[in-house]
Amino acid sequence: MIKNIFLAFIPLFVAVDAIGVLPIFISLTEKMEAKERLGVILKSLVTAICLAIVFIFLGKAIFRVLNITVADFMVAGGILLFCIAIIDLLNPAKRRRIPAGEMGFVPLGTPLIVGPAVLTTSLLMLDIYGLLPTLMSVLTNIILAGIIFLSANTFIRLLGVAGTRALSKITSLLLAAIAIMMIRKGITFMLGF
Predict the structure, then answer these.
(1) In the prediction, which pLDDT does 98 show?
(2) What's the pTM?
(3) ∠ Cα 16 20 24 (to 5°)
(4) How many other C-beta atoms lie within 10 A of the C-beta of residue 6?
């Protein structure tokens, strides 16, 4: 069980990409007071957890209604993830003007913490490792993202702006590799291998 949680945790850690989202979080909240920043973090975590749990429990039912297979979603999600990874690699500037009251829900809660990468990866992990390991891994990664956001100033001091950007690029490259793996597995499932 612990091994499955760990094995599901790794791809979800890459999909959540809290360290890669950190520079975006800092740029969005840099002019906020500590209390207001904490409120944004809490809203983003609640949004991300609710969305992930609903998708883990209802995702496959929604697929049945829409006549979509997990393989279809894996290929579509893999293509989308690959595009997101390429955009992150080629265009890392993501400054947005969003009201502070909404920022925790969108874009931080979704799509930055729990977006297509996490949803697609969680469905894949659900099939491979089961419900409990996937749920534990998703929740752990979301909480870890919150801890990283709370420690934003420390991370920037330790890594520096250049170090944070470099780490974000590496994470985007890993996300692209996971995207290719999802496309490959989706096509393999479609072909019945």
Answers:
(1) 64
(2) 0.74
(3) 110
(4) 13
Question: Quick one: CA dihedral 55, 147, 18, 128, positive or negative?
Answer: negative
What's the CA angle centered on 44, arms 39 and 50, to 5 degrees?
125
pLDDT digits (tens, 9 = 90+) for 144-190: 999 999 998 787 778 777 777 777 778 778 778 877 887 898 899 88
Count: domains in the chain: 1
Burial 101-122 (b: 16+ CB within 10 A, else e): eebbbebbbbbbbbbbbbbbbb
- Residue 3's pLDDT band, with cuts at 50, 70 and 90, is very high
The count of other CB atoms within 10 Å of the CB of residue 14 is: 21
Question: What is the extent of the structural domain holding 108?
Answer: 2-191
Structure tokens at 144: 């870890």
Sign of the Cα pseudo-torsion (33, 39, 40, 41, in order) = positive
Average pLDDT, the chain: 85
Say how far apart CA 31 and CA 33 lie, in whole Å: 7
The total of other beta-carbon atoms located within 10 Å of residue 70's CB is: 19
| Domain CATH code at residue 65 | 1.20.1250
Condensed to tens digits (0 to 9), the pLDDT of residues 15-32 reads: 898 987 887 788 778 778
